[in-house]
Fold this protein.
Amino acid sequence: MDSTTGTISHMSGRSKPTEAFSFECEVTAHQAAGVMLASSVTVAADLLSYSSATLLFHAHGSEAPLTTGTGWSNFELGCAPEVAWLTVSAATGVLSYVDQGSKAGGISAVDDKFYSQDGAVCAVTAWQGHKKHQVSFVAIRPRPWSTLEYDFSAVAVTMGEELHPFAPKPHTQQGLMKPWAYNMACGVSGAGSQTKFSFDRVLSMGLLAGHPVVEISMEGEITVAPAVSLGELFDAIVASGSAGKASLVLFCLWALHETAITRVRKLNTLTISVGFWLAAKSFLAGAMSRDWILWGSTYRRAPGTSQVARLFR
């Protein structure tokens, strides 16, 4: 394995396997000091297989089998539960996504680590000469959430206090793919140009001039928790005379980060406005989802309001 990229490959100069095998490894990656992420990887080889034990299917997508030797024929597909959006070529073994259109189709879901996504456990059988072979895999049809909504409209909190997390509204439709990675960008008003907002994707935390303000979990729960150290920032604002009321406002855009799944690119947004008030040492955070729109790759104020500089680059 390449320790820089994480790519797993066959070692050059070593003989190729002559018999089927399968084993599981744990790969650990280091992102930052004290931050480690682990993932289980299954490495397997057989006379008949596909590129992965988990196959993802999208519109016009297909997966060709990996075979050893010649003379393969009579490929057949079986899935549990049955899915109407996947077929196999009896001659070549190529798996293809079928657009059901307006057809009802059956309901399918894969639980556990696949988070009840639309999919099934499938097996393909084929003949090579007079011997029958079989390969099993999980077929997933990723359908990301189309919206990301919250119940709250405004909250107030004192610096140093942590509010109960706000969870996104659940989707009632079965088989949808939950978001698991997020991004955040904010425009700052009420402070000097040197006061910047940043979002740490490793910690999933929003920082104002290095001070923690908000964070979001893998489940999409937003926690508003301004650090006590923000008082230092307010003192600097008052001393500089850059804000008459010593107020600080963040116009924030929460977005579902681009997923790591090939060909799936979904962006869901939620706008948050955060105002800090020195007199009460508290701030207000309110959702204003209609104030911002996606304009190409640039996020700006909706027509009728002042323009906001590019947030995502």
Observations:
- The chain has one helix and 22 strands.
- The first helix runs from residue 230 to 240.
